[in-house]
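Forum > Structural Biology > Help requests

Title: Can anyone predict the 3D structure of Endophilin-B2?

Hi all, first post here. I have the sequence for Endophilin-B2 but no way to get a structure on my laptop. I'd be grateful if someone could post the structure tokens.
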Amino acid sequence: MDFNMKKLASDAGIFFTRAVQFTEEKFGQAEKTELDAHFENLLARADSTKNWTERILRQTEVLLQPNPSARVEEFLYEKLDRKVPSRVTNGELLAQYMAEAASELGPDTPYGKTLIKVSEAEKRLGAAERDFIHTASLSFLTPLRNFLEGDWKTISKERRLLQNRRLDLDACKARLKKAKAAEAKATLWNDEVDKAEQELRVAQTEFDRQAEVTRLLLEGISSTHVNHLRCLHEFVKSQTTYYAQCYRHMLDLQKQLGRFPGTFVGTTEPASPPLSSTSPTTTAATMPVVPTGTGLAPPEEAALCLEEVAPPASGTRKARVLYDYEAADSSELALLADELITVYSLPGMDPDWLIGERGNKKGKVPVTYLELLS
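Reply #1:
Sure, ran it for you. Structure tokens for Endophilin-B2 below:
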């Protein structure tokens, strides 16, 4: 019991001495041991790494989970060391609503069929999003958290110890200075000065040892950067895979929707203005709907032999291609973005298609991929 009381008293005395030293330094009443420029640069670099890692981590969490309530819930589960419950993505929820709407409104109607197709695509998008979130969390967020909750806590602990050792060192320097001043006035015995010098040597040794430990940890920040760089590459790779999957799913959906001949029955506006129009405006589509030859062309057009088709004497126009288009069969003409082709319509053709010519090549082309020039 007496030992514990003495230890508490000793700790309190050390804490008080450090507090006095720190306060006097702040008011410019005591000298402070300065760290060398290289050490200060390491400290600044470590602080910058910690601050930006926190910002990047938080914003990535927002990117992967925009819902603040869901992020708080996941944080609590993680702190309680419990598995986060599986959560339906927004795409999967939309797919569910669309499927239920199709079931109620009529799955055999054009609208119902389209709802079903879109719901299937949204479900695939939701699954891709779930995979992306999982991969990004493991390969990117987890290493950042490990740094902040592991390496950085160790660095912070050693920096606090270094600060204490420095305060002890400077307090010893101040005591020795006072002892020598008192000795000069013959008010102290020589053994008091010797004691102060011995305390200073011990404090200097502990400070140097702690400075070396802290310096090695701070220099390890370079390895942290290398690790985070590797994780960043993994994050970009997973994001690229995710967006590529989304693009493929939506491109496939567009092609499927283009095979529904009755999807837009009853609309009052044609898919594109007639070629005979004298309007100086051009036709441009901001997002191409990819039609395919299967199921779109009327029977008389399907039997059309392109080699025997001749352009009409009037009514041909120039068109600029907006997007690359891959021909679905030999009756279609493949397109490259920004090229110029000649287009015209034939009697009985589906309004979503035109005949396109480029050199000696000829074939059907989708109107929504073209900007018709005046």
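The helical segments are 2-26, 37-64, 68-79, 90-105, 110-184, 190-219, 221-258, 299-302. Strands lie at 317-321, 340-344, 353-358, 361-366, 370-372.
Shout if anything looks off.
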